[in-house]
Amino acid sequence: MATATNPVVTQYSPTTVQQPKLTSIKKLAESSSEISFIPSAYKYKSGNPQDEAILLDDDEEAKIPIVDFSLLTSGTPEQRSKAISDLGKACEDLGFFMVINHGIPEELMKEVLDGCIRFYDLSEEEKHEYEGKHVLDPIRCGTSFNTSVENVLYWRDFLKVFVYPEFHFPNKPAGFSELSSQFCKKSREVTWELLKGVSESLGLEADYLDKALNVESEGLQIFIANLYPPCPQPELALGMPPHSDHGLLTLLIQNGITGLQVQRRNGKWVNVNAIPNSLLFNTGDHLEIFSNGKYRSNIHRAVLNNNATRISVVVPIGPSLNVVVNPASQLVETGNHPPAYVGMKYKDYLELHQSSRLDGKSILDRVRL
Fold this sequence. Notes:
Layout: H1 7-10, H2 25-31, E1 66-68, H3 69-74, H4 77-93, E2 96-100, H5 106-120, H6 124-128, E3 139-143, E4 157-164, H7 176-201, H8 208-213, H9 215-218, E5 219-228, E6 240-243, E7 249-254, E8 260-263, E9 269-271, E10 279-283, H10 285-290, E11 300-302, E12 310-320, E13 324-325, E14 344-345, H11 346-355
Parallel strand pairs: 1-2
Antiparallel strand pairs: 2-10, 3-4, 4-5, 5-12, 6-11, 7-10, 7-12, 8-9, 8-11, 13-14
């Protein structure tokens, strides 16, 4: 397929991070524990419930699709076929699902989450060592999302690390890097198997997606540790705004504190509470592009509370940075299903995504035809 050029990207400015010196949310929350108001820079919402999308009833939580990983990898042919069907339906309907029986030890996940706490307990000076200067630096620590372009800041501290095909990681605190390396390796193996199932659910060969996007040998994997401290006015602020992820699939674990919400096709939001020891997954923009719109990337956000710190570890996996991502040629039929997206190198898309304000699918909209 011929690759078109996106004129928006060629006009996009360099993406060096020039963030103002801001206090981390952790430090701000700890220093203002007796204050009942947030700084105006963090006021994202008006506080009027009528201004917000309707939140679905709590019983909707039980309807998050579940995929049994053991059936996908070692079930009978009939069980595997059912697991692939469930996976495809989850990607098509909600773009969000839980994976059970995945084989990653629960103790390892707890140790990684504890490692995140120890990282954020480092001094401000120690964390500043990992600030990064460019959105594609392999290690970046900061606050909000991209403070150089945001009109409103988010109640969140983050650590972002490129962990595959090359493993980078802070050398503090002791042991955190080793634990995270183990977790990333196991989560990568789970995601790769899921992507094989996704490929088959689209009517393609199991290895079609991998061969087209060079995922297993050079696909980018990122480890993101998010910290959402208690917020004195959680109804006015957000941890992360509504957005879709770059990449193919994103894995998420959290410390048992709720705060993740996903958006259904009807625009309504639903709270997500994971089954103990399960993995949460959502579809990314590049799975939508690859499937030519059959599987749509999920929009989600992080809401806050005023009494507990939420920690989440998010691990997106995408194509090779140098691959130009187009709709799969076998899914494109001239006349009936023409390409719905222009081809773009994953590295360029990632740079654009990380350099912009988060706003739903505004970045994906730039490559729609």
